[in-house]
């Protein structure tokens, strides 16, 4: 064993001497140093989308290779009003936030305020829809933590209409009276009281319903499925109707007008859209003007 160790040591010494002895025979331009002259590796960066861009369609997840903004003067279906960043616990998850997650709801709340500033008013006052796009799973694994606030025009809001093409930006679109505004309607109801149709129209045309505003449902309020659930929405809408028409929000309000409550889809509700649109509805009568501020004389008990 001792001999083997001596043989190994001798070989190592011989190798060391051989390496040391070849220094003078290097080719021109070779310095024999293995740790210098290498270019630094580029810093790893992740893609971040830009606000103020328009897109042909909406997607919950936005892979880098499908990011293809178009000029807002060309047909498109959504517009990025803001790009935010997931931080804290939301940024530390192994996968992007799902639509039903608290992180997604928090991002939606930021987007809601951003859309309000971008439009000049709550988007729910118009035929508009707001969604949140998050990074794809591979992008998230690579460090992407952005989210896009996507705003688009829809065919209608009363029947969950689809996104439609438009060829101009939505910036400032609700700052003044707009073709996108929700106004008056002719409601058709079934014998059981269910609404079968809400036909939009100008308030100078004969109508029996009018959009009056929005309330934000608290987190404790479930998406309406039962009669009791719907009554909770109607109770809140009555307060919105009373403030709009300038009539008392008391037990007699239901004798002046009914209400229509329109939340968005259950999927939107769980993703953070807790805004409920409210409409007054008079089933035995009609009007040819807006009922904003008319008071008890303009909206008498019936």
TrEMBL record:
Residues 1-28 form the signal peptide. The keyword Membrane does not apply. The keyword Zinc does not apply. Residues 51-278 form the Septum formation-related domain. InterPro entries: Septum_form. Keywords: Signal. It holds the Pfam family Septum_form. This is Septum formation-related domain-containing protein. The lineage of its organism: Bacteria, Bacillati, Actinomycetota, Actinomycetes, Micromonosporales.
